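Could you help me review a protein record that somebody else here produced? Do not assume that whoever made the record got everything right. The record follows directly below this note.
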Amino acid sequence: MAKIKKPKAKGSRAENELAIILWNLGYAVIRGPSSGGGVRRRFQPDIVAIKNGHILIFEVKTGREGEPIYVEASQVIGIQEFARRSNGKAYIAVRLAGGEWRIHNIDMLSITKGGNYKLEAPEKGLKIRDLDETLFPKDKKITSYL
């Protein structure tokens, strides 16, 4: 009899995978468990990554290319508040079927009729290495030689 994969396990695997990728890029990474003491009283993001003073806060989702990603309003409000308190930047990290990660600024979400949020085109976000290169350019500017 084949085991049925539970959505929570799929989400945990995706969070762990992203945490490892960010760690390998030089970030200090903390993955927050989705349940446990105090989580109902305060928001806990899926992942917090810190590098050279930059604080990145991630809500992790999985999806398919061409299909929107839905995010509960409480998660959006929570990640925005966490980012405000930490002076960090809030992102939605989406692992698309086939293994491609895309990173979206929280501002890219649109509100649904039901009051939750939607990411219309998850495949259009930044790749993780592009996000890292944007924050920490590897090429020197010409002015650094003058």
Q: What stands out?
A: The two ends are 68 Å apart (CA to CA).
